[in-house]
Structure formats: structure tokens, C-alpha cells
């Protein structure tokens, strides 16, 4: 299922819309650990599903929808971005706002 996005063979890094993307290479065991680390607790899973349902949202929208505090949401988003499950893009309207969305890997991991 994830094979289309997580491969074992190297490929080049792509840049789309100013956001760098790269193919991730993992064994099945590494994939299992990644899924468990990213979505291992209910709060992380709640945030991931909210982002998935919104397609693109701000951290303020996540805080409002989930009731989680700002530091919890910030930490979850940082972990998701660091793992490649989510990406952040600056708003073209307001440079102070950032939109969070799931990457293809993040979406596939939710269906794993």
C-alpha cells in the first residue's frame, strides 16, 4: 500500500512549489516503527485526522477543533513535519500564518 511513496531504491529530491520532497527508503520494520511513533497516541492521531479532513489548516484551527493546548499542537506538528508526515507552507495572504497539510506519506500512513 505504501510502496508507491516509500521505496527501497534511491531517487532524486524534488522541489514542488518551494517545498522540498524526497522519497523515503525503509524496510517494513522501519515503516512499522514510523507509524507507531508518529501516530502512537490519540492526540497525534486526532491532529492527523483533522488535518486530513481539512486538507490544509492552521495550528489555530487545530487548537480550536481539538481543544488541545498550543504547546501540545505545536509539538505534534513539529514531530509530524520532522518525520515527513506533514508539511508547512507560508500563507500567500498573511506571511505570519502557516498552513499545515499531510504529505502523501502521511496520508498513506493513516491508511496503513
List keywords for this structure.
two-stranded antiparallel ribbon; Arc Repressor Mutant, subunit A; disordered N terminus; 112 residues; alpha+beta
Task: Give a written overview of the molecule.
This protein has 112 residues and is of the alpha+beta class. It contains 5 helices and 4 strands, in the order ββααααββα. It has helices at 28-38, 42-54, 59-66, 70-83, 104-110, and strands at residues 14-16, 19-21, 86-90, 98-102. The strands form 2 sheets. It has a two-stranded antiparallel ribbon with strand order 1-2. The chain has a two-stranded antiparallel sheet with strand order 3-4. Helix 3 crosses helix 4 (70-83). It starts with 13 loop residues before the first strand and ends with a helix.
Q: Look at the structure and give the CATH class.
A: Mainly Alpha
Question: What is the domain total for the residues?
Answer: 1
Main sheet record: 2 strands, antiparallel
Calculate the terminal CA-CA distance, rounded to whole Å: 7 Å
Q: Report the principal-axis shape.
A: globular
Order of helices and strands: EEHHHHEEH
Mean pLDDT: 76
- By CATH, the architecture is named Orthogonal Bundle
Helix count, DSSP H or I runs of 4 or more residues: 5
As residue ranges, the low-confidence spans are 1-22
Which strand order spans the largest sheet, edge to edge or round the barrel?
1-2
Amino acid at each position: 500500500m505504501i510502496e508507491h511513496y516509500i521505496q527501497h531504491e534511491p531517487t532524486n529530491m524534488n522541489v514542488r512549489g518551494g517545498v522540498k520532497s524526497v522519497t523515503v527508503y525503509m524496510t517494513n520494520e522501519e515503516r512499522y516503527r514510523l507509524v507507531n511513533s508518529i501516530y502512537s497516541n490519540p492526540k497525534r492521531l486526532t491532529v492527523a485526522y483533522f488535518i486530513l479532513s481539512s486538507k490544509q489548516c492552521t495550528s489555530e484551527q487545530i487548537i480550536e477543533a481539538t481543544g488541545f493546548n498550543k504547546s501540545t499542537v505545536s509539538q505534534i506538528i513539529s514531530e509530524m513535519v520532522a518525520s515527513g508526515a506533514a508539511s508547512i507552507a507560508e500563507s500567500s495572504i498573511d506571511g505570519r500564518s502557516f498552513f499545515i497539510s499531510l504529505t502523501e506519506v502521511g496520508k498513506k500512513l493513516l491508511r496503513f
